[in-house]
Amino acid sequence: MIVIIFDAKDMIFGRLATKVAKEALLGNQVVVVNTRHICIAGKKKNVIEKFRKRFKMGHPTRGPFYPKAPGRLFKRMMRGMLPYKKDKGKKALSRVRCYSDIPKTFEGKEFVRVEGADINKLPTSNYVRLGEISRLLGGIQ
């Protein structure tokens, strides 16, 4: 099993998440670091409003529950790109690990950058970082 470590700093969410999902479906162990620096395209007001609406859905004690930490938030959003209700998707999702910073176990290792997913590829400068969304919604950095 191959371990692929993605550095998510200044990456566009959708482009990074598709690459991570594909690698996990191929059977590789995937680690994503610096998830709090992932960028979601759109005006800040609109993006935050969308996430607030998502958090308020459901029953307070029965769910669905939505995570607030950047790493768990990335994994939950990426889950939609996998067939997570089938066995193949469940196994692929279990092979993905997400961290908001770089853990000591991965310091000094070589990180993979997704080509074409850099924030400079956005045609506009309107974006919000996942860490900021997490902070505004009451999550832990």
Topology:
Elements: E1 3-7, H1 13-25, E2 29-33, E3 39-41, H2 44-56, H3 70-79, H4 87-94, E4 96-98, E5 127-129, H5 130-136
Parallel strand pairs: 1-2, 2-4
Antiparallel strand pairs: 3-5
Describe this structure as you would to a colleague.
With 141 residues, the protein is an alpha/beta fold. The chain has one domain (3-136): Ribosomal protein L13 (Ribosomal Protein L13p, Chain: A), CATH 3.90.1180. Helices cover 36% and strands 13% of the residues. The protein contains 5 helices and 5 strands, in the order E-H-E-E-H-H-H-E-E-H. The chain has helices spanning 13-25, 44-56, 70-79, 87-94, 130-136, and strands spanning 3-7, 29-33, 39-41, 96-98, 127-129. Strands 1-2-4 form a 3-stranded parallel β-sheet. The protein has a two-stranded antiparallel sheet with strand order 3-5. Strand 1 (3-7), helix 1 (13-25) and strand 2 form a beta-alpha-beta unit. Helix 1 (13-25) crosses helix 3. The longest helix has 13 residues, at 13-25. The model has no long low-confidence stretch (mean pLDDT 91).
